[in-house]
């Protein structure tokens, strides 16, 4: 992840991270441009899932998927 300083546009580094909730963290950042020296806090927040994790499937289904030789077999397992 690349953080940019909003004052000068240079790269900034994350010095500390503070977890607020499971889906929100505060990133304490410092600009790497010595002429700027801006320090700031950014919020990093989980948005939404695009593709669900396989870990959300029941263990028996995950075991069946491991045994599949090809994607077509995996689709049959997922179809039930």
Automatic annotation (TrEMBL):
Domain Zinc finger Ogr/Delta-type: 5-50
Short name of one Pfam family: Ogr_Delta
Protein name: Transcriptional activator Ogr/delta
Taxonomic path: Bacteria, Pseudomonadati, Thermodesulfobacteriota, Desulfovibrionia, Desulfovibrionales
């Amino acid at each position: 992840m690349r953080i940019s300083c909003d004052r000068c546009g240079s790269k900034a580094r994350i010095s500390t991270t503070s977890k607020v909730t499971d889906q929100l963290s505060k990133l304490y950042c410092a600009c790497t441009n010595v002429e700027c020296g801006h320090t700031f806090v950014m919020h990093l927040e989980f948005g939404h899932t695009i593709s669900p994790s396989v870990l959300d499937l029941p263990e028996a289904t995950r075991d069946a998927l491991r045994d599949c030789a090809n994607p077509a077999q995996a689709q049959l397992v997922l179809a039930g």
